[in-house]
Amino acid sequence: MGLMEQRVVGGARDVEELLKKKPGLIHRVLFKLKSGNAKLYELQKLAEQANVHVQQVEEKILDKLTKRHNGVVALCHEKAVMPWNDTRKILLEAKQNDVPCRIVVAANLEDPHNLGACIRSSLALSVRLMLVPAKGSCGLTPAVERSSAGTLQKMDICRPGNLEIALKELKEAGYQIVGLDGASETSITDFKFSKHLVMAIGGEDKGLPPYIRKFCDSVLKIPMSPEAHSYNTSVALSIGLYVSA
Fold first, then answer.
1. Do residues 29 and 68 share a domain?
2. Integer Cα distance of 134 and 138 in angstroms
3. Under a CB-based contact definition with an 8 Å cutoff, are residues 177 and 240 in contact?
4. Domain count, the chain
5. Which of 47, 87, 176, 197 falls between 20 and 30 A from 170, CA-CA?
6. CA distance 77 to 138
7. Quick one: CA dihedral 22, 23, 28, 33, positive or negative?
8. In what order do the strands lie in the sheet with 218-221?
9. What distance in Å separates the CA atoms of residue 244 and residue 192, rounded to the nearest whole number?
10. What pLDDT, on a 0 to 100 scale, did the predictor assign at position 234?
11. CA distance 29 to 43
12. Of 42, 76, 110, which residue constitutes the final position of a domain?
């Protein structure tokens, strides 16, 4: 996932300050595997409370990122992401006030170029914000920034710690949730879209995850020539957003 390209903050003191003051800038925190260090254990709890993804790794991985880590490294985004509580308030108010609102869920996008292109298309096609799971997706790296052609800084992005809870709350609030999958039997051209819409896509290799599918009101396919295997993720999203507008 391009660890070497992300901005790195190493050392317990600096990581702790970042977790307390700017947790939205952190993609994930890497801890030395089986360190037995009480301070690192406290930092892990702090990260989890801030809904920041944590991961245990071999010390040699931390050494490749920075020699000044003392057992912990924070990998940072190019921009701060929105916390779910603030995001939920915005989306629920839009529904309550009957303001049209479209949301994109991008899951399992490990390729920064794909994620950047999805951000660019989402902004161009009037998406209010994007939900990108904290787990299983690349961070908002310089490569994502470049691929987005500058739109990363203009698009509101939330990385909920638990996307299942987020989708459950949106569904209960009355949002229509649809997924895109080429294997579906239902064509996107035959579907009636709501003005309060969540459109979900998955990575090209893994597709739409089951934990997202179970919340979908429908999973749709985009017609294409039988000679073609599939659409690129960002292309499929662009078509889906255009058709649903």
1. yes
2. 9
3. no
4. 2
5. 47
6. 10
7. positive
8. 156-158, 129-131, 101-106, 196-201, 176-180, 218-221, 186-187
9. 8
10. 94
11. 9
12. 76
Cα separation, 119 vs 231, whole angstroms: 17
What pLDDT digit, counting tens, does each position of 231-245 carry? Answer: 899 999 999 999 999
Cα separation, 44 vs 157, in Å, equals: 24
48 plus 164 within the same structural domain: no
CATH number reported for the structural domain that contains residue 9 in this entry:
3.30.1330.30
12-21 and 38-49 are packed helices; what angle lies between their axes, rounded to 10 degrees? 20
Token digits of residue 90:
């915005």
Q: Which are the contacts of 184, defined by CB distance < 8 A and separation ≥ 6?
A: 219, 220, 221
Instruction: Note whether 175 and 91 are within 8 A (CB).
Output: yes
Do 97 and 18 lie in a common domain? Answer: no
pLDDT tens string 30-67:
999 988 899 999 999 999 998 888 999 999 999 999 88
77 HSE (CA, 13 A, CB side): 25
Give the span between the Cα atoms of 198 and 72, in whole angstroms.
36
Percent of the chain whose predicted confidence (pLDDT) is above 90? 67
Question: Residues 6 or more apart from 166 whose CB is under 8 A from it?
Answer: 84, 87, 88, 131, 158, 160
- Where are the extended beta strands (E) located within the chain? 7-10, 26-32, 53-57, 72-76, 101-106, 129-131, 156-158, 176-180, 186-187, 196-201, 218-221
Q: Which residues contact 202 (CB under 8 A, 6 or more apart)?
A: 107, 108, 179, 181, 208, 209, 212, 233
Of all helices (H) and strands (E), which one includes residue 234?
A: helix 233-244
- 3-class SS at 180? strand
